[in-house]
Write a structure and sequence with these properties.
By secondary structure, the protein is mainly beta. It is built from no helices and 12 strands. Strand 9 (264-265) and strand 10 (273-274) form a beta hairpin.
Protein backbone atom coordinates (compact mmCIF):
# COMPACT_ATOMS: atom_id res chain seq x y z
CA UNK A 1 0.00 0.00 0.00
CA UNK A 2 1.54 3.28 -1.06
CA UNK A 3 1.63 6.25 1.28
CA UNK A 4 0.79 9.82 0.29
CA UNK A 5 0.60 12.72 2.72
CA UNK A 6 0.02 10.40 5.69
CA UNK A 7 -3.13 9.03 4.01
CA UNK A 8 -4.01 5.97 1.97
CA UNK A 9 -4.32 5.39 -1.75
CA UNK A 10 -5.99 2.12 -2.75
CA UNK A 11 -5.30 1.40 -6.41
CA UNK A 12 -7.25 -1.64 -7.62
CA UNK A 13 -7.85 -4.53 -5.24
CA UNK A 14 -5.61 -5.20 -2.30
CA UNK A 15 -3.98 -8.24 -3.87
CA UNK A 16 -3.68 -6.58 -7.28
CA UNK A 17 -6.20 -8.98 -8.87
CA UNK A 18 -9.69 -8.37 -10.14
CA UNK A 19 -11.24 -10.12 -7.15
CA UNK A 20 -12.80 -7.79 -4.61
CA UNK A 21 -11.30 -7.82 -1.13
CA UNK A 22 -12.27 -6.28 2.20
CA UNK A 23 -10.11 -4.32 4.60
CA UNK A 24 -10.99 -4.81 8.27
CA UNK A 25 -9.56 -2.23 10.64
CA UNK A 26 -10.20 -0.89 14.11
CA UNK A 27 -9.17 2.55 15.32
CA UNK A 28 -7.94 3.53 11.86
CA UNK A 29 -6.78 7.15 11.95
CA UNK A 30 -6.19 9.00 8.68
CA UNK A 31 -4.74 12.51 8.67
CA UNK A 32 -5.65 13.61 5.16
CA UNK A 33 -7.59 11.33 2.84
CA UNK A 34 -8.54 7.85 1.75
CA UNK A 35 -8.86 7.27 -2.01
CA UNK A 36 -10.85 4.20 -3.05
CA UNK A 37 -10.25 3.61 -6.72
CA UNK A 38 -10.69 -0.02 -7.87
CA UNK A 39 -9.47 -1.05 -11.27
CA UNK A 40 -13.02 -1.81 -12.41
CA UNK A 41 -16.49 -1.19 -11.00
CA UNK A 42 -17.41 1.27 -8.28
CA UNK A 43 -15.51 1.81 -5.08
CA UNK A 44 -17.35 1.38 -1.78
CA UNK A 45 -16.50 2.82 1.63
CA UNK A 46 -18.60 0.86 4.12
CA UNK A 47 -18.94 1.62 7.83
CA UNK A 48 -20.93 -0.97 9.78
CA UNK A 49 -21.19 -3.03 12.95
CA UNK A 50 -19.24 -6.23 13.12
CA UNK A 51 -22.09 -8.04 14.84
CA UNK A 52 -25.83 -7.39 14.71
CA UNK A 53 -26.24 -7.05 18.48
CA UNK A 54 -23.79 -4.20 19.01
CA UNK A 55 -25.34 -1.19 20.71
CA UNK A 56 -23.54 1.45 18.62
CA UNK A 57 -24.20 1.95 14.93
CA UNK A 58 -21.55 2.18 12.28
CA UNK A 59 -20.84 5.82 11.56
CA UNK A 60 -18.46 8.39 10.14
CA UNK A 61 -17.72 11.10 12.71
CA UNK A 62 -16.31 14.52 11.83
CA UNK A 63 -15.83 16.38 15.05
CA UNK A 64 -12.64 18.35 15.34
CA UNK A 65 -13.22 21.79 16.85
CA UNK A 66 -10.93 23.54 14.39
CA UNK A 67 -12.71 22.18 11.27
CA UNK A 68 -15.47 24.38 9.78
CA UNK A 69 -17.03 21.98 7.29
CA UNK A 70 -17.42 18.36 6.27
CA UNK A 71 -17.64 17.88 2.53
CA UNK A 72 -18.72 15.00 0.32
CA UNK A 73 -17.62 15.60 -3.24
CA UNK A 74 -17.90 13.85 -6.59
CA UNK A 75 -15.51 14.36 -9.46
CA UNK A 76 -16.35 15.43 -13.01
CA UNK A 77 -17.02 11.89 -14.25
CA UNK A 78 -19.95 11.31 -11.88
CA UNK A 79 -23.35 12.95 -12.00
CA UNK A 80 -25.17 11.97 -8.80
CA UNK A 81 -24.31 11.65 -5.14
CA UNK A 82 -26.91 9.31 -3.63
CA UNK A 83 -27.79 8.49 -0.04
CA UNK A 84 -29.69 5.21 0.34
CA UNK A 85 -30.26 2.32 2.77
CA UNK A 86 -30.88 -1.40 2.40
CA UNK A 87 -34.66 -0.91 2.68
CA UNK A 88 -35.13 2.44 0.95
CA UNK A 89 -33.25 3.53 -2.13
CA UNK A 90 -32.62 7.11 -3.22
CA UNK A 91 -33.32 8.73 0.14
CA UNK A 92 -31.45 11.80 -1.10
CA UNK A 93 -29.90 12.42 -4.50
CA UNK A 94 -27.60 15.38 -5.20
CA UNK A 95 -27.54 15.84 -8.97
CA UNK A 96 -24.84 17.81 -10.71
CA UNK A 97 -26.68 18.07 -14.04
CA UNK A 98 -30.03 19.01 -12.47
CA UNK A 99 -28.31 21.37 -10.07
CA UNK A 100 -30.37 20.40 -7.03
CA UNK A 101 -31.25 17.91 -4.31
CA UNK A 102 -34.06 15.35 -4.65
CA UNK A 103 -35.62 13.80 -1.55
CA UNK A 104 -37.26 10.43 -2.17
CA UNK A 105 -39.18 10.13 1.11
CA UNK A 106 -40.79 12.23 3.82
CA UNK A 107 -38.31 14.33 5.75
CA UNK A 108 -38.57 16.00 9.14
CA UNK A 109 -36.61 19.15 9.95
CA UNK A 110 -36.62 19.75 13.68
CA UNK A 111 -34.52 22.92 13.60
CA UNK A 112 -34.49 25.99 11.39
CA UNK A 113 -34.43 25.46 7.63
CA UNK A 114 -32.74 28.22 5.65
CA UNK A 115 -33.18 28.14 1.86
CA UNK A 116 -31.10 30.79 0.13
CA UNK A 117 -31.36 29.56 -3.46
CA UNK A 118 -34.07 28.12 -5.67
CA UNK A 119 -35.62 24.86 -4.38
CA UNK A 120 -38.39 22.71 -5.82
CA UNK A 121 -40.67 20.75 -3.49
CA UNK A 122 -42.71 18.19 -5.44
CA UNK A 123 -44.50 16.71 -2.42
CA UNK A 124 -46.65 18.14 0.36
CA UNK A 125 -45.06 20.43 2.95
CA UNK A 126 -46.36 20.40 6.53
CA UNK A 127 -45.11 22.80 9.17
CA UNK A 128 -46.19 22.63 12.81
CA UNK A 129 -44.54 25.97 13.53
CA UNK A 130 -44.52 29.41 11.96
CA UNK A 131 -43.63 30.17 8.35
CA UNK A 132 -41.69 33.36 7.63
CA UNK A 133 -41.15 34.18 3.96
CA UNK A 134 -38.76 37.11 3.58
CA UNK A 135 -39.57 37.90 -0.02
CA UNK A 136 -42.36 37.41 -2.55
CA UNK A 137 -44.15 34.22 -3.53
CA UNK A 138 -46.42 32.67 -6.16
CA UNK A 139 -48.97 29.90 -5.66
CA UNK A 140 -50.01 28.20 -8.86
CA UNK A 141 -49.16 25.56 -11.43
CA UNK A 142 -46.30 26.90 -13.48
CA UNK A 143 -46.88 30.56 -12.63
CA UNK A 144 -43.76 32.71 -12.61
CA UNK A 145 -42.61 34.83 -9.70
CA UNK A 146 -43.38 38.52 -10.09
CA UNK A 147 -41.53 40.95 -7.86
CA UNK A 148 -44.32 43.54 -8.17
CA UNK A 149 -46.65 41.24 -6.18
CA UNK A 150 -45.73 40.14 -2.66
CA UNK A 151 -48.09 37.16 -2.94
CA UNK A 152 -49.68 35.90 -6.14
CA UNK A 153 -52.31 33.14 -6.51
CA UNK A 154 -52.57 31.92 -10.09
CA UNK A 155 -53.69 28.29 -10.24
CA UNK A 156 -55.71 26.62 -12.98
CA UNK A 157 -57.68 23.59 -11.78
CA UNK A 158 -60.96 21.71 -12.15
CA UNK A 159 -63.28 20.95 -9.24
CA UNK A 160 -66.40 18.82 -8.86
CA UNK A 161 -67.17 19.91 -5.30
CA UNK A 162 -70.26 21.92 -4.34
CA UNK A 163 -68.11 24.98 -3.58
CA UNK A 164 -64.63 25.77 -4.87
CA UNK A 165 -62.42 28.83 -5.16
CA UNK A 166 -58.90 30.18 -5.22
CA UNK A 167 -58.81 31.37 -1.60
CA UNK A 168 -60.83 30.40 1.47
CA UNK A 169 -60.72 31.95 4.95
CA UNK A 170 -62.05 29.76 7.73
CA UNK A 171 -61.43 28.93 11.36
CA UNK A 172 -62.87 30.16 14.66
CA UNK A 173 -61.47 33.32 16.25
CA UNK A 174 -62.04 33.45 20.02
CA UNK A 175 -61.43 36.77 21.79
CA UNK A 176 -60.36 36.29 25.40
CA UNK A 177 -59.57 39.94 26.14
CA UNK A 178 -59.23 43.40 24.69
CA UNK A 179 -61.77 45.60 22.96
CA UNK A 180 -60.29 45.92 19.46
CA UNK A 181 -61.85 45.06 16.15
CA UNK A 182 -62.32 41.42 15.18
CA UNK A 183 -62.36 40.38 11.53
CA UNK A 184 -61.73 37.56 9.14
CA UNK A 185 -59.47 39.62 6.88
CA UNK A 186 -58.02 43.13 7.03
CA UNK A 187 -56.79 45.25 4.12
CA UNK A 188 -54.85 48.05 5.77
CA UNK A 189 -51.88 49.22 3.66
CA UNK A 190 -49.16 51.06 5.56
CA UNK A 191 -48.93 53.54 2.71
CA UNK A 192 -48.85 54.05 -1.04
CA UNK A 193 -46.13 56.34 -2.33
CA UNK A 194 -46.43 57.69 -5.86
CA UNK A 195 -43.05 58.75 -7.16
CA UNK A 196 -43.40 57.80 -10.82
CA UNK A 197 -44.17 61.20 -12.29
CA UNK A 198 -47.20 59.63 -13.99
CA UNK A 199 -50.98 59.79 -13.51
CA UNK A 200 -52.39 56.56 -12.03
CA UNK A 201 -56.04 56.02 -12.93
CA UNK A 202 -57.00 54.12 -9.75
CA UNK A 203 -55.30 53.96 -6.33
CA UNK A 204 -57.16 51.65 -3.98
CA UNK A 205 -56.77 49.24 -1.08
CA UNK A 206 -58.88 46.61 -2.86
CA UNK A 207 -59.80 46.23 -6.53
CA UNK A 208 -62.43 43.66 -7.53
CA UNK A 209 -62.94 42.78 -11.18
CA UNK A 210 -65.67 40.64 -12.72
CA UNK A 211 -65.21 36.84 -12.56
CA UNK A 212 -64.94 36.37 -16.36
CA UNK A 213 -67.46 33.54 -16.65
CA UNK A 214 -67.45 31.13 -19.59
CA UNK A 215 -70.61 29.04 -19.90
CA UNK A 216 -69.79 25.80 -21.74
CA UNK A 217 -72.29 23.58 -19.90
CA UNK A 218 -74.62 24.85 -17.19
CA UNK A 219 -75.87 28.26 -16.09
CA UNK A 220 -75.10 30.89 -13.47
CA UNK A 221 -78.22 31.86 -11.51
CA UNK A 222 -76.65 34.92 -9.88
CA UNK A 223 -73.39 36.39 -11.12
CA UNK A 224 -71.64 39.24 -9.33
CA UNK A 225 -68.22 40.73 -8.76
CA UNK A 226 -68.90 40.99 -5.01
CA UNK A 227 -71.50 38.77 -3.34
CA UNK A 228 -72.49 39.26 0.31
CA UNK A 229 -74.42 36.18 1.35
CA UNK A 230 -76.15 37.58 4.42
CA UNK A 231 -75.96 40.06 7.27
CA UNK A 232 -75.21 39.20 10.91
CA UNK A 233 -78.00 39.25 13.48
CA UNK A 234 -76.08 39.31 16.77
CA UNK A 235 -75.00 42.97 16.82
CA UNK A 236 -76.75 46.01 18.16
CA UNK A 237 -76.88 47.21 14.55
CA UNK A 238 -76.59 44.64 11.78
CA UNK A 239 -75.61 45.36 8.18
CA UNK A 240 -74.61 43.32 5.19
CA UNK A 241 -72.54 46.32 4.04
CA UNK A 242 -71.45 49.19 6.28
CA UNK A 243 -69.61 52.27 5.00
CA UNK A 244 -68.52 53.91 8.26
CA UNK A 245 -67.08 57.08 6.76
CA UNK A 246 -66.70 58.81 3.43
CA UNK A 247 -68.77 59.23 0.31
CA UNK A 248 -70.03 56.28 -1.70
CA UNK A 249 -70.27 56.39 -5.48
CA UNK A 250 -72.26 54.09 -7.75
CA UNK A 251 -71.85 54.66 -11.48
CA UNK A 252 -74.26 51.92 -12.57
CA UNK A 253 -74.23 50.13 -15.91
CA UNK A 254 -75.12 53.14 -18.05
CA UNK A 255 -78.86 52.55 -17.66
CA UNK A 256 -79.54 51.76 -14.00
CA UNK A 257 -77.69 52.55 -10.80
CA UNK A 258 -79.58 50.32 -8.33
CA UNK A 259 -81.83 47.33 -8.47
CA UNK A 260 -84.33 47.33 -5.60
CA UNK A 261 -87.38 45.18 -4.79
CA UNK A 262 -90.44 46.29 -6.71
CA UNK A 263 -93.01 46.55 -3.90
CA UNK A 264 -92.90 46.90 -0.12
CA UNK A 265 -95.05 45.12 2.41
CA UNK A 266 -98.20 47.09 3.26
CA UNK A 267 -97.11 49.72 5.81
CA UNK A 268 -100.56 49.78 7.37
CA UNK A 269 -100.20 46.17 8.50
CA UNK A 270 -103.31 45.17 6.61
CA UNK A 271 -101.48 42.67 4.45
CA UNK A 272 -100.84 42.62 0.75
CA UNK A 273 -98.31 44.63 -1.17
CA UNK A 274 -97.68 48.33 -0.97
CA UNK A 275 -97.73 48.69 -4.70
CA UNK A 276 -95.37 51.23 -6.16
CA UNK A 277 -93.34 51.87 -2.99
CA UNK A 278 -89.83 50.87 -1.86
CA UNK A 279 -88.97 50.49 1.84
CA UNK A 280 -85.94 52.52 2.98
CA UNK A 281 -84.81 52.96 6.59
CA UNK A 282 -83.95 56.58 7.35
CA UNK A 283 -82.99 57.70 10.84
CA UNK A 284 -83.90 54.32 12.28
CA UNK A 285 -87.43 54.36 10.87
CA UNK A 286 -88.71 52.71 7.70
CA UNK A 287 -90.21 55.01 5.11
CA UNK A 288 -91.74 54.08 1.77
CA UNK A 289 -90.57 55.82 -1.35
CA UNK A 290 -92.94 55.74 -4.33
CA UNK A 291 -91.26 54.85 -7.58
CA UNK A 292 -94.08 55.80 -9.96
Amino acid sequence: MAEEHSGFILLGDIDGSTNSKDISAENLNVDTKVDIAPASGGGILEVRNQTANQAASGKIIWGESNIDAFELQYDGSNDDLTLFSNTKSDIMVVSRSAGGVTWGYNNTVSGNLHITGTSRLVGNVLTNAQLDVEGYSTFGNGSALLSRFTMRIDRDFSASATAAGQLQLRGILTATGGTGQLYGASFNPSGTVINSGNAHSVVSSVIIDEPTITLTSGTATIASSLYIQRAPTEGGDNYALCVDSGLSRFDGDGTDVFELPADATDPTGGGGAATGRIPVKIGGATVYIPYY
